[in-house]
Amino acid sequence: MKNLILVFLGGGFGSTLRYLLGKYLNNTNTTIPYGTLTANILGSLIIGIILGLATKNNTLSQSHTILLATGFCGGFTTFSSFAYENHLFLKSGDFLSFAAYTIASFVFGFLAVFTGIYLAK
User: Fold this and answer.
1) Which residue range(s) make up the domain with 52?
2) Residue 37 has pLDDT above 80, yes or no
């Protein structure tokens, strides 16, 4: 039960932060949803740091890891939004934005995870 509460609390904070990023960074003037892209990259960096610290000399407890990695990062990152936004790009025939957004999300997301793990060491 304790772990469910930790995931719930972390997810609530992560989702709230993701909503605020989307509200302020996603707009109709740009083709790329920068709020979602930012949340995915930052979330990847944060989970890299969290899991890097968790494995380094047991710096974080299991409860901290569940709260932060599973809860916060799970609520903060936005793969479902990413998939839907790509659906919209494909539906509208905007293949350039689809490709740019998808490639940027994967490349920078992976780099952010690796950077987070490196920074935690």
Assistant:
1) 2-120
2) yes
SS3 per residue for the chain: CHHHHHHHHHHHHHHHHHHHHHHHHCCCCCCCCHHHHHHHHHHHHHHHHHHHHHHCCCCCCHHHHHHHHHHHHHHHCCHHHHHHHHHHHHHHCCHHHHHHHHHHHHHHHHHHHHHHHHHHC
Identify the residue whose tokens are 């494995």. 55
How many folded domains does the chain comprise?
Answer: 1
User: How do residues 38-62 score in pLDDT, each as one tens digit?
Assistant: 999 999 999 999 988 888 878 889 9
pLDDT digit string, tens, across residues 90-118: 999 999 999 999 999 999 999 999 999 99
